[in-house]
Design the sequence.
């Protein structure tokens, strides 16, 4: 669990500014949006019904589902209820996506490793970070990870792998 939390913090996207200025990568709407869209389809609802049920506009909800807008965290429970989603997991998805530096300081009540959408999102983000670090060092990701493993084994007094 600790490794997952460190990966969340390390792979955080832009976490500065007000929530409206926070945007996920353009190629990925993020776990919050993906979970909402999946929940709406499962509930067989349209955005107009969800908008009515949570008190937000249909246009704003559509932009949230596309990953183009970030609702206030305080609105996430009402949105989750309108979408008939797991509200606890949805709130964690919001925190993981929009405030990842805070994750390590929060008490976990949801097993985030069991949520495939969140796990996949942060795995991709972590892999991208690793690739960027390796490029700066001029090595492959595999070489960088192997060097890190050797250093850890040496630190623990274990023999070098052959």
Sequence:
């Amino acid at each position: 669990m600790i490794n997952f939390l460190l990966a969340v913090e390390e792979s955080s996207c832009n976490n500065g500014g007000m929530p409206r200025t926070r945007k996920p990568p353009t190629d990925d709407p993020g776990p919050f949006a993906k979970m909402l869209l999946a929940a709406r389809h499962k509930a067989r609802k349209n955005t107009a019904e969800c908008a009515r049920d949570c008190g937000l506009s249909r246009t704003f909800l559509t932009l949230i589902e596309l990953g183009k807008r970030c609702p206030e965290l305080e609105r996430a429970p009402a949105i989750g209820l309108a979408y008939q989603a797991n509200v606890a997991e949805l709130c964690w998805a919001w925190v993981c996506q929009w405030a990842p530096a805070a994750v390590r300081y929060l008490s976990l009540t949801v097993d985030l490793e069991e949520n495939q959408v969140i796990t996949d999102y942060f795995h991709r983000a972590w892999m991208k970070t690793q690739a960027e670090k390796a490029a700066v060092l001029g090595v492959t990701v595999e070489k960088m990870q192997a060097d890190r493993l050797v250093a850890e084994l040496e630190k623990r007094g274990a023999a070098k792998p052959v």
